[in-house]
Amino acid sequence: MIAPVSSRLRDSFTSRYRRQLFSVVSVVLLITTLTSGCSRSAYRLRADRDVFHIYQEKQAEEAYTIPPLPGVQVDPRSRFYDPSPADCPALPEPQPTLSSYQLPDLASAPGMTAAEASLSDFTAGQVEAIPTPQGQPRAEIASPSDQVPLAETETNPAETSEAETSTAAPGITSEQRLADLIRQQAAEDDALQSADLPGPPSAGTPQDLTAMDGESKEAESSDEADDDEADEDSDLRIVPIPLQYWQELPTSCLPRMMEFDSVQQEFQRTVPEMGAAEMLSMRSDAPRLTLPMIAELATINQRQLQTQKERLFRNALALTTQRYDYVLRPTIRGNGTGLDYTHARINSASSSGLLVPTETAVTKTTATAGQFLAGFANDVVLTFNGPNGFAANVSSDLLFEFQQTIFQRDVVFEDLTQAERNVIYEARDLIRFQRSLFVDLATEYYRLLLTYRAIEISSQDYFSNLRAFREGRERFRQEDKNTTLVQVDQFEQNALSSRSSLVRACNALESDLDTLKLEIGLPPEMPINLDLSELEALTASDQLTVARQLVMRTLRSLRETDRRGDQADGGVIDTEAMVNGASAVVSHLQDSLQIRAKVDPAARLQQVQQEIDLLAAKLKLLESRLICDIKADQLQQIEADPRFQLSAPIAFERTRELAGDLLVQAQRAIRFRRLQNRMQPDAGGDSQQLQAMGRRIRQAIAQLKQMEDTWDQSDPREQLQRIEQMVQMAVDLGQQAEALVQQATAEVLPADSAELQAVVQQAVEQTLELADRIESSSISSLGQTDPDQQEAMLLALYQRLDLANARGDLADQRRQIKLAADDLKSILDVRVSQRLSANRILSDPLDTSADGNVTRLSLALDTPLNRRIERNVYRATLIDYDQARRNLIQDEDEIKFAVREDLRQLRLRRNQYEISVARAALAYQRVVSTRMQLKLNIGNVVARDFLESQQAFTSALNSVAADHILFILDRIELFNDTESIRLNAWGYWQQGQGESLSLPPLPDFYDANPNPYGRIPEFLHYSDEVRQNH
C-alpha cells in the first residue's frame, strides 16, 4: 500500500519538475533571444545622441569661444557621401573613373535665394552662429552685378552663363572653338595691312586711366550733341592684332585671356564680324567660383576638416565611456545564463544532468573614487536517472562590495578628468583649424586673382609691344632715317619677352587652380574658374587711386605754375602753362569721377560731374583761344618782317590751319555756352541764336573740308596753277571764322589779352578749388587707422584658442604633479563586502540549513618602502610642468610677435601701395610722353626709352595689384592672429573682403575666459589641491 503511494508521489513530482524544467528552458531561450542586442542603427544613433548632448554641454560651458559644433555626418553633396546603408556600407566600385563628381548646388552661390540655400535639416555645417564682439568693418564691396571694370562695362558672369552654354556645341571646349576660329580666320586672311602708328593699349594700360586729348576738325552733325567734341586722337587709332599672332598663343591660354573685356575688344578688332554671343562663347565655360563658394566647397569636401571633426567625435565617444563608469551599470561581461547538459554512463549505470548557471552584476564608480559592485549568481542543477532518481538543487549568491581608496582619489578621477578636457581641446582645435582653413583658402583665392590680373596686364603689354614692333618694322621698311634695324630687333625681342611672360602666367594659373582643387577636396580633372567680379572691383579701386595720384601730381605742378606766375615781374603769367596744367587736372578729375561712379554706383556725383564738364569746356575754349592767338601773332610777325617772304603754298597751309583752329574755338565756345545755359538758366543766352551759330560753324567747317579735299586731290601742277585762288579762299574762310569766333565768344571771353589773363587766373583758381573739394581724401584707400599695438596683442592673448589649450595643458601638467605625488604615498584601500548565500533542495524546499551570510571588512596597506620608479616619475612631472610653463610663455611671445609682425606688414603694404601708385602714375606720364616724342621724332627719344617706360608701367601696375591684394591677405592674417574671425554656416568670413583694420573691442579677460585653466567635473570630490587649480 505504501509502495504504490510512494511511486505515485514520485511520478507526480517528476512530472511537475519536468514541466518546471521546460518552463526554465523556455525562459532562458526567450531571454537569450531578447537580450542578444539591439540593431546596429540603434547603437549608432544612441552614440550620436550622446555625443550631441556632450557637444551642447561643452558649447554651453564655453559659449564665448566655442560655437555649435558639427557632427561627423557627411553632407549629401560631398564626394565622401556614401548612399549605401550607414551600418552596412557597400564597397565602392574598384575601377577608377574620371569626372565622376559634379559641382553641387551651393547655398553661397550668387543669386541663390534663401529657399534654395536651405538644405533641409542638414546642420552639420553650422560652425559659428554665436554673437561675439565684432569690429565695425567698412561697407562690403558691391555685389557682382554692381561692379564694373574701368575700361568698359562687363557682363556679369552669372548672367552670361546661359548664353555661353547655348552657343557652345556639346563636347567641344572653349579652347577648341577658339583655336578653330583662329585657324579659319587665318586661312581666309593672308595678312592685314600694317598700321601707321600703334594705338594706345586698352584696359590695364595708360589709356584706361585718361584718354589722350585731341581735337577733331571734321564737320559735325546738325543736332546739338554734334557740337560736343570727341576727346580722341584720330592720329592714334588702334590697329587690330593680326590673327597669326593670336594663333601663336597656346590654346589653353586664350580662354583665360578672353575673361577680360579689354582682350575681347582686341579680338573683336581682329574679327569685327563676330557677335557678342559668339564672343562670350570663347570664354572658359567652367563653373565660376567666388570665395564664399570656395569656402562652402571646402566645408563639405575638405579631407583634413572631416578628419578634425572625426577626432572631436572620437574624443566625445571616449568621454561617454568614461562617464559611464560613474553610473550604475551592468558589468561588461558576466551578465547572462547558460545550459550545460551532461549524460554519463558508469558501471553500466547511466545518469543525466542539466546545469543552468545564471549571473548578473552591476558596478559603479562613486564620486569619492570608490568602487561599488553588486552581483547575483544562481545555479540550478537538475539530475535525471541518478541513484535517487530525479533530484534538483538551486544555489544562489548575492554579493555587495564597496572598495574605497584613501590617498589616491585624484588618480582614479584622472581618466574622466582628462577625457572631459580633451573634448574642449579638440573643439578648440577644430574651430581654429576652420578659421585657418579660411585664411589658406583666401590666400589661394587672392593669389589666383593676382595671377588673373597678371594675365590681363601681360596681355596688354604683349599687344602694346607687338604694335610697337610692327610699327618699327614698317618704318624701317619705308627707310625712315630715325628707325634702325637695332631698334626693330629691340622691339621684337621685347614683344617675345611679353609673350613669354603671358604664357608663363597662364601656365601658373592652371597649376594654381589644380592646387586649389586639392585644397578644397575637388578632383583635379574638374574644370573650374573664378568669378572675377571682385578682381574688377579691386582693379577699379586701384585705378581710382592711380587717377587720384595723377590728379595730385598734376595739381602740384599747376600750383607751382600758379605760384611762379604770382611771383613774375609785372604780373605777367605763363597762361599757356597754366591752362595746360588746369586742363590736365580736370581731365584726371573726370577719370577719377568716372571710376568712382563704377566703384560706388550709389554715389551722388551728378552735380560735381556737371561742374567738371563746364570747367573742362571752359579750359578747352581757353586753350583754343591761346593757340589761335599764338598762331595769328606768328603769322602777322612773319608777314610784317621783310626778311621773310612766305611762298604761296606755305601761306596757304598757315592760313588754312589758322582757319581750322578758329572754327574749333568757335565750336568750343558754343558748347561751353550750352553747358552754361543748362547749369545756369539765369545766365542768359538765346538757344536759337546758339543753334544758328552752330549751323554757320558747321557750314564753314564743311567749306574748309571741301577746300582741303580739293587741294589734296589735285596733282602738283594743278596746285601751282590754282595756288593764288586757294590762298584767297583760305583768307576769306579765315575772315569768316574770325567773325564767327567773335560772335561766339563775345559773352564768354574778353578780346583784351590782359583781361584774358584774369579769366585764365580765375579758371585756374576754380580748378584748384574743385580739385581740393573732390580729392580731399588721402591717396591710399587702404585702412588708414592702425589698431593700437598693445590692445591688439592683448586681444590675441585673450582670445586665441590655441593659447587657451596651452593654458589647459599647463594645468594638466600641474595636476600630474599631484597625481605623481599621490603615488609616492602609501596605498590604503578599505573594502567592505556582504555575501548572502542560499542552497535549496527542491525535493525539500523547506530545508534552509544551507543558507549562509558572510560579512567582510578588510584593510589593505602598501607602505612606501620602495618608490624609486614613482620618485623618478614625480621628478619628471616637475620637469614636464616647467617645460609646459616655458611653452606657454613661448606661445604668448610668438603670438605677440605675430601680431606685431602683422601690423608691421600692414604698414609696409600700405606704404608700398602708395609708392606703387606713385610709380604707376609717373610711369603712365612717362609712357605717354616717350610715345608722343617717339612718334614726332623729338627730344632724342629712341625705341629703348619707350620700351623701358612700357616695362616700368607694366611693373608698376603689377605692383599696385600685388600690394593691394597682399594688404587684404595681411589684414585677414591679423584678424586670424587675434582670433577675431567669425565664420558663417559655410566657413566664410563675411568681413574678409574689407579693408578696415578696426579690431573687436578688448573684452575683460575673465569674461572671455571664465575658466582660464579649464573645468573639471563638479560632482567629483577632488582634493583641495586639484580643485583650487581649476
UniProtKB/TrEMBL annotation:
One annotated Gene Ontology cellular component of this protein: cell outer membrane
Acidic residues bias: where? 221-234
Q: What keywords are annotated for this sequence in UniProt?
A: Cell outer membrane, Membrane, Transmembrane, Transmembrane beta strand
Q: State the Gene3D superfamilies in the record.
A: Outer membrane efflux proteins (OEP)
Cite the residue spans of the region called Disordered. Answer: 66-105, 130-173, 189-238
Q: Which InterPro entries match?
A: TolC-like
State any single GO MF term.
efflux transmembrane transporter activity
* Membrane as UniProt keyword: yes
Compositional bias of type Low complexity: which residue ranges? 151-170
Q: Where are the transmembrane segments?
A: none
Protein location: Cell outer membrane
| Keyword Membrane in record | yes
What is the protein's name according to its record?
A: Outer membrane efflux protein
The organism encoding this protein is: Stieleria bergensis
